Amino acid sequence: xxxxxxxxxxxxxxxxxLTGIGLLATSAWLVWHYGYSFGLPTEAQLAAVSPxxxxxxxxxxxxxxxxxxxxxxxxxxVIAYEQPDFYEAWSLNPIVEIVLALGTGRSPKPAGxxxxxxxxxLLLSAENDRQVDPIASxxxxxxxxxxxxxxxxLEIYLNESYxxxxxxxxxxxxEIYFGKALADLDxxxxxxxxxxxxxxxxxxxxxxxxxxxxxxxxxxxxLISDTxxxxxxxxxxxLREAPGAQTRPVNE
Length: 252
Fold this sequence. Notes:
The protein has 11 helices and 2 strands.
């Protein structure tokens, strides 16, 4: 019996050793594949991204609005809608978040801002004109969070997210949807724009509903009062039919 137990213990240790070696080999392959072979933009390419200008796209005539020149309400509303703990989380690394979620039995927290910016920055590599798999996306997101500050990530998101109607960024969205400068948007218009990055192709029937949901998120986050929220919902949502067209209420 004792001999059997010794053999069983040695066999178990051998299997555990082989499993550990297999995990190390798999980890090494994943690091090599996604870090060097897959064609993701490198940390050097991310470091070379302009600290103030366009990051992913350099179309002529596209304006970049510095983060400090955007209203605090707009910035905070987008954070409340897409990634509420964007500044509070001790790490934006998605791998850290997945490990914490698994360890505590909760779902991973939303990461809409960092996910969107990572997809945008994939354009830095000519090899990434195709869909990347989820593992590659997570690997690249951690590279982005290591290379760029949170302010810069948010600035890229606000300036380069696609909002529908060929509008990239909130300044272009303000002009195309409302015929206004970014600084002139009211609460309802901000709420509408902040939902467009997630749903740029949705149909017109959802516009007011999406705006009202955005207003609710702003209210829940304490960015606006109950009175402001009610007034914003009661105000007609005037959208331009197309660039250069007249505005009219969505519910007409």
